[in-house]
Design goal:
- The chain is mostly helical and 81 residues long.
- The chain has helices spanning 14-22, 24-29, 31-59, 65-68.
- The chain is 59% helix and 0% strand.
- The longest helix has 29 residues, at 31-59.
Length: 81
Amino acid sequence: MMTSMKAIQVTLDEELLARLDRDEEVRRDGRSAVLRRAADLYLRRRQSRSIAEAYQKAYGGGNGLADDFAGWEDEEVWLDE
């Protein structure tokens, strides 16, 4: 399946552009392909961090669910088999 593409304008300082253009992957695949992959990776990592932060908030220390269950650690009962 072919994904539609839209051309955008991105402004980079000359030093960053020169570093980008010296990169082997950029020379092989082109700026656009590498920048698309970089943007995708950035968004995936950001989503992972957001999920991890939400999990930590809900189940970690502080005001999450961990406080709701504090003090119950020694209340379990193990039945003999």
